[in-house]
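Observation: inputs received (chain + protoporphyrin IX containing FE).
Thought: call the complex predictor directly.
Action: predict_structure
Action Input:
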Amino acid sequence: MPESTDKVWEINLFSSEFKENAYQIYKQLRLNDPVHRITMPSGHHGWLITRYQDALAVLKDDRIIKNPRKVLNTDKPNRVLAESDLLTNHMLSSDPPDHTRLRSLVQKAFTPRMVEGLRGRIEEIAHTLLNDVQDKGKMNVIDDFAFPLPIIVICEMLGIPAEDRDKFREWSNAIISATNQPDKMRQIQPQVQEFIDYLHDLITKRRQTPRDDLVSRLVHAESEGDQLTEKELFAMIFLLIIAGHETTVNLIGNGILALLEHPAQMEKLKQQPELIHSAVEEMLRYYSPVEIATNRWASEDIFLGGKKIPKGDMVLVMLGSANRDPEQFANPDQLDITRENNRHIAFGLGIHYCLGAPLARLEGEIAIQTLLARMPDIQLAVNPATLKWRPTFLMRGLEELPVTF
Ligand code: HEM
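Observation:
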């Protein structure tokens, strides 16, 4: 890594080397080239925003937009995923007024008050999953606990069979790991098509026989005509499934890893379980589960950090880097579950601030608290050096986390 700004170096965001060394690379970038230009596999130029203050500026800037069709000379910006065009018209790739309309259709289901009503059920799910492994004295935290818990919750909210979760996992893993890589996107077309067929079948069933679930309510909104198009209906359910599958699993997995790496902090949390709220906020900051915010596009030339980001270029906010910026956080590489004024941006900021944040927080708190209460002598079962981060572009999450208790 160079020491000065004149030198240029290539960063491959898609490599496992990057994932393994990301926090050192972020440190260098924040110091030497905080608004750093890269070339994406699609050929677009992208700008990595690594400082906290610049990240806030970008996330709040309405000249930096989400819908690429408005700035790119192509009607197929997402290439292969967009071939069907069925899965891309969701709120996370829309700007106002479409974004406002789409978000307001589901906002109510995710308010802190609605989500609090799920507490008892989430606790029950956490206990059931731990009952299944308790006698074995060991588990893989990811597969046995962190993954199924949020999936069961989101499937129940949407009204889709949780038994199908292995299929969702395969589809959503495939799609997430192909993000921003046109070649990989082409390879995973069969999985994308299976996912679309599944959604088609589900929507048809709920159209025929509505139930008291989110999918039925969205199908109803679509049938009303002016609130939701059919494409938007598919994309909305797709987004909620993906968001429910790929994120909270990493909060729980990364959070447990962070505690295992910091035994004094783990001990403190066991002694003072009431610290769980600030502990989960710190886990979100320390190993941010969504490491890079989703694609944004400059709708005009933007000047930031002494650089000109030309109209049409991609802007990538590195949440994982902003959340370790020493200008904002004292001792940023230290896990401190009592950290005060922890204004991390792990859930983003501005109009696309995570819709599922209250749910994710509740799930994270219940999962970690239940696990520590039931398995207080939890220990890593492997050499820490053998743990691997999944080489996915947007997310930070472990392949597996074997523990004994
Ligand atoms: C720890 C878990 C989670 C984290 C760290 C997380 C993080 C994020 C972030 C960073 C964004 C903004 C992305 C951007 O601006 O580019 C976002 C948006 C979103 N998240 Fe989450 N998320 C989590 C869990 C969930 C859950 C459980 C759901 C619900 C199913 C959810 C639904 C959404 C939706 C729908 C959006 C788009 C909001 C919009 O465009 O207005 N998230 N999330």
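Thought: report the result.
Final Answer: Residues 16-404 form a domain with the Cytochrome p450 fold (CATH 1.10.630.10). Strands lie at 35-39, 45-49, 64-65, 138-140, 296-298, 302-304, 307-309, 314-317, 379-380, 402-404.
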